[in-house]
């Protein structure tokens, strides 16, 4: 019965399980070989649906003109509208609280500008800070849409903030699955690698949770059709501004396109693999003087670029138009649109029902005849030199050597809450395997701030046993082992103050002795344990040397750095910084200023006991409205924690002194403090207090957490 239900779901959704072929199609061809009487696929036909895709970076402006020249430019009304906006609101309130009046304003402007010859229904709206996506469908098609879901993912500072990232909407249209993505990638001409990384992060992290919990989450690429719009921010390289404008004047877009960063990355298959972009026959859409069609005349004089793009992925798709719309002058970008004709699969319900019943009868017979069986390519997996916040993957192949399809799943062991330790995941954790088919299963080890403390102290090892269960079959056991390289990330402040050498140079028993062989909730108890330990002969450091190295680097090199703590660093550079802090190699701190700033935030976030200890949380809540009481709370901090707090506050003061250059203010620094530490709202209140005192020299007002 379970196999019948699984096939039914697969036939309805026509969605692939991760890493395996379509269950319905594979099973059907297998059965056709066994039974010549099985009918063909006459139940499926194609309906040509017109999809109007549109993208517009509005630079934080409200709608000032009709959008009809953009959204109603096609001669006949499209079946589906997919409209994406970027930089909907550039205010700090939108960034911090994700609330903006621009959303209803632009939504109303879009609704009024849809094609006048048809009636449309809103399918879904999703927004992340200033990135918004709206999907409309003709009312006569609305009944054929189902399984509508929306998700967001931020790729800004610390890889999380929503100033950059993507929003997406997926839906089931007739018998095809469609995913629409609107993204805003990293800016600046030299940051194309960061844009590539943003794309990869969006693809890996954006997953749709389906209402049917028995089905695994769907990522972007598990859809029949993927439509991608947005301000991708890829620029034109190797030409100066005058050369770019000269080619535009000549309408020589083909030559100019050869210098386009996105085209080069597509040719190298570095991003958007499998996607198609239509031929560009319009001038670059960025950057213009607002309210005109004149190129940027500001001091920076940005070079023109095709920042705003539309791509697609899937079969039976043709493009009817791809154009910019120069008449709209609200923003420093020009909107772009594309009209696609997409072959949507439609099911003949009567033929479908007949085929389904025949398949179920044949599957029933196969189930009664055979027991599921699989072969595993390996049963022991070893992860060498696991590091903090670094993905490590080992794969195995599962081959169905039995006579029937089988359903597999990793199941939890007795008295354990999940099928694996929290640092280990399997992808896919369950699935369906047709006869003679195979699937690759990736086992991934990833140590984060929740799992690092016990691993740093040797209280937990990279060891686990996974149980792979076959429905109506036997269990298979997989052994997972490895070694973890200790890190200052996830190590208590009090312990780090005792370590004068890099943590990787210290014997594990010595590190464990510094916290009495276990993590202690109250820092004062930890200090007492350290002081009573005869093995500790030197006076502790005032603050962890790792914090000093990062703050000192930023003080000397980045005190006037624009967008510090707002622009994210590179993941590869964070790994180099982490290794330097853990080993002392090379001789100086590597990485860009932005990467060092993000590494500092991640360090504070990883602390098992935050700068403001958990034991003082209630006092923080009780006194957060009074600056004087907040000072008293600070005085109660354990000495090493107070040193760190004072040191960071002094650094914040220096940053604020140079706000004219780095464009930082109290709100930005306070928000990063709140998002980078486990202390949450309470530490945020104290950071705000310090920042306000340091900038305005008054403490007369109340500060709410």
TrEMBL record:
<dbReference type="GO" id="GO:0052658">
    <property type="term" value="F:inositol-1,4,5-trisphosphate 5-phosphatase activity"/>
</dbReference>
<dbReference type="GO" id="GO:0046856">
    <property type="term" value="P:phosphatidylinositol dephosphorylation"/>
</dbReference>
<dbReference type="Pfam" id="PF22669">
    <property type="entry name" value="Exo_endo_phos2"/>
</dbReference>
<dbReference type="GO" id="GO:0007165">
    <property type="term" value="P:signal transduction"/>
</dbReference>
<dbReference type="InterPro" id="IPR047078">
    <property type="entry name" value="RhoGAP_OCRL1"/>
</dbReference>
<dbReference type="InterPro" id="IPR037793">
    <property type="entry name" value="OCRL1/INPP5B_INPP5c"/>
</dbReference>
<keyword id="KW-0968">Cytoplasmic vesicle</keyword>
<keyword id="KW-0472">Membrane</keyword>
<dbReference type="InterPro" id="IPR008936">
    <property type="entry name" value="Rho_GTPase_activation_prot"/>
</dbReference>
<dbReference type="GO" id="GO:0030670">
    <property type="term" value="C:phagocytic vesicle membrane"/>
</dbReference>
<dbReference type="InterPro" id="IPR013783">
    <property type="entry name" value="Ig-like_fold"/>
</dbReference>
<comment type="similarity">
    <text>Belongs to the inositol 1,4,5-trisphosphate 5-phosphatase type II family.</text>
</comment>
<dbReference type="GO" id="GO:0005829">
    <property type="term" value="C:cytosol"/>
</dbReference>
<dbReference type="InterPro" id="IPR048869">
    <property type="entry name" value="OCRL-1_2_ASH"/>
</dbReference>
<dbReference type="Pfam" id="PF00620">
    <property type="entry name" value="RhoGAP"/>
</dbReference>
<dbReference type="InterPro" id="IPR000300">
    <property type="entry name" value="IPPc"/>
</dbReference>
<keyword id="KW-0378">Hydrolase</keyword>
<feature type="domain" description="Rho-GAP">
    <location>
        <begin position="528"/>
        <end position="705"/>
    </location>
</feature>
<dbReference type="GO" id="GO:0031901">
    <property type="term" value="C:early endosome membrane"/>
</dbReference>
<keyword id="KW-0967">Endosome</keyword>
<dbReference type="GO" id="GO:0004439">
    <property type="term" value="F:phosphatidylinositol-4,5-bisphosphate 5-phosphatase activity"/>
</dbReference>
<dbReference type="InterPro" id="IPR000198">
    <property type="entry name" value="RhoGAP_dom"/>
</dbReference>
<keyword id="KW-0443">Lipid metabolism</keyword>
<dbReference type="InterPro" id="IPR036691">
    <property type="entry name" value="Endo/exonu/phosph_ase_sf"/>
</dbReference>
<dbReference type="InterPro" id="IPR046985">
    <property type="entry name" value="IP5"/>
</dbReference>
<dbReference type="Pfam" id="PF21310">
    <property type="entry name" value="OCRL-like_ASH"/>
</dbReference>
<protein>
    <recommendedName>
        <fullName>phosphoinositide 5-phosphatase</fullName>
        <ecNumber>3.1.3.36</ecNumber>
    </recommendedName>
</protein>
